[in-house]
Amino acid sequence: MKELIDQIKVEIENFTVNADAQLNKGNKAAGTRARKAALNLSKLMKDFRKASVEASK
Q1: Which residue, 2, 19, 24, 51, has most beta carbons within 10 Å?
Q2: Where in the sequence is the domain holding 11, given as residue range(s)?
């Protein structure tokens, strides 16, 4: 589960950096990367939820 949390932290950082670049600099490629990071983050959060439920049993 620690690995999963570390992956989530990395994706949050990727999203933040790229979303800021799109917002502040108008960087379209950064927007694409931010959307990809958001999608990956969504998948990781679902995996975290599954792992968390299993750990609580």
Answers
A1: 19
A2: 2-56
